[in-house]
Amino acid sequence: MTGRKCYDGFAGYWPSTTGPWAEVLNPMPKCIAPRTLTGELDWNAQVTDGDAGDGVRRLKDEVAGDLFLSGCGELACGLLEGGLVDEVNLWIHPAIGGAGTRPFEGTTLSLELLDVTAYGSGVVLQRYRPRREERSGRPSKQP
User: Fold this and answer.
1) In the 3-class helix/strand/coil scheme, how is the chain assigned residue by residue?
2) pTM, entire model
3) Long-range contacts of 4-12 (CB under 8 A, 24+ apart)
4) What confidence tens digit (pLDDT) does each residue in 6-39 have?
């Protein structure tokens, strides 16, 4: 699942790309949860009906296995705050550039570190789980 901005960026690049990541991403069904996008979409994508949180709840009931959300903007923040995200993966790349908003801008959430993997490229994957107390609406204790 993704929002419109991520969908627009990905759909402008991946469908004409080849390689291992493209072989995974291109055939994968995609659910887009936009506020401003309607109708038929390309790249094996469809617009979710109604509220994004309700759409995720339906998908969790319908899909065997994991759901993947790409992006860290308003959609991700809303799903995190709604307790609908089980794991957060942060990919840190060894490059700095440009301006933009901070990931998860405006959201306060405590995370529990699950794993860290460093790759030969310099990319580091950090895997986190939202703290259980946060999911219930109670603040978690900070270490």
Assistant:
1) CECHHHHHHHHCCHHHCCCHHHHHHCCCCEEECCCCCCCCCCCCEEECCCCHHHHHHHHHHHCCCCCCCCCCCHHHHHHHHCCCCCCEEEEECCCCCCCCCCCCCCCCCCEEEEEEEECCCCCEEEEEEECHHHHCCCCCCCC
2) 0.82
3) 4/32, 4/34, 4/35, 4/36, 4/37, 5/71, 5/73, 6/70, 6/71, 6/73, 7/32, 7/34, 7/37, 7/41, 7/45, 10/43, 10/70, 11/41, 11/42, 11/43, 11/45
4) 999 999 999 999 999 999 999 999 999 988 877 7
Q: What count of other Cβ atoms lies within 10 Å of the Cβ of residue 107? A: 14
Nearest to 72 by CA among 104, 111, 30: 104
How do residues 34-85 score in pLDDT, each as one tens digit?
A: 888 777 889 999 998 889 999 999 999 999 999 999 988 889 999 999 999 9
